[in-house]
Write a structure and sequence with these properties.
By secondary structure, this protein is α+β, with helices and mostly antiparallel strands. Helices cover 45% and strands 22% of the residues. It is flat, with a radius of gyration of 14 Å.
Amino acid sequence: MSEGAASRTTLRMFVTGGTSRSQRAVVRVRNLCDRHFGGGYELDVVDVLERPDLRSDSRSWRRRR
């Protein structure tokens, strides 16, 4: 594995549908990640309307309110 691959950060973002609000949020997160990680990241955008199974898998790590 190359050094660049080892330092790559993977993030998962959940959106609800392809609404303009969801699209703006994805653009904002990508811009933030570009500034912070300088391209050394992968953003996995999950639409929970299409993939509700992935949403339930990710609940295990979230803090409960």
